[in-house]
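Human: Cast an eye over this sequence-structure pair and say how the chain folds.
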Amino acid sequence: MMKAKNILFIMLMGIICLVFSSCNSPKEETVVIEQSEEKQNKPKTEEHSEQEEAWIWVDVSGAVSAPGVYCLKQGSRVFEAVQEAGGFLENADTTGINQASVLSDGEKLQIYTIEEVQQMEVQPEMFSGSSENTESGGKININTADLTELQEIPGVGEKKAQSIMEYREACGGFQNIEQLQEVPGIKGKTFDKVKDYITVK
């Protein structure tokens, strides 16, 4: 009887020990590592390669509201220079001006009045040498003369004057007066007529 009680006691103690040990054993914790997806939002650095804008200086004088020297973007046209100068005066003669013509650096844009143009037709010698683009000897600098001044050259009308300015803009100016023969319509006899009235600086 006593032996059976001892066995029962031992079994009971064993069960208690098992229960106690199971309670104190460390639980295996499942660690879930959440890998956060780091979105590497690298800002797209758009390379704004801002090309340095080229500028030109143009002298606008004559029949405009505010004559003066103006700084314009390269490739600007005559009408833009006139706008900068406040626009044409009411008595400005615009018939001989190509307002779509591209300007070049250092160009002088002379706007004549209607009265001046009429007087020029009657007495052209009064305007000879009056421009900075005309030398004292009456020769016109074909590198800087505007449309109206180019038409003062004998044998050069509005169409040829425009061709001269377009060639000048495209080629960066004339190196010598003979180069003028490369302009359409100015060769041979035509060049012989104008060569004594032009110069290059």
